[in-house]
Amino acid sequence: MNNIEKAILQAIIKENKSSYSFLEEHYSYLYVESRKYTNVGIYINFGYAKQFSSSDINILLSSRETLIADNLKNELAYVLAITNGKINFLEITTNGNDLINEDSKLSLLL
What we know:
Elements: H1 3-15, H2 22-27, E1 30-37, E2 41-48, E3 59-61, E4 66-69, E5 76-83, E6 86-94, E7 106-109
């Protein structure tokens, strides 16, 4: 997991800690299974190095921090998908027709 992915996950977990405290424990055991660039976004799919029980929690979470890319004029949107009580994927998308790729430098503004 790269530094920006870590920062985004930590921001989301911190902001949603009161309702979804289990995410903090799960974070320590996450690894990136794959990254898919779609031109207008990125999907980062996660796997676990430890087994956790499933639950009926299915939700999309985000945080208030602003995510920007050096080559885009508009900020980016991002959500963390929780499926069956587990961190499934992080989706990052542009807000417009701008393109994002592997060379785009992302920054989280706190």
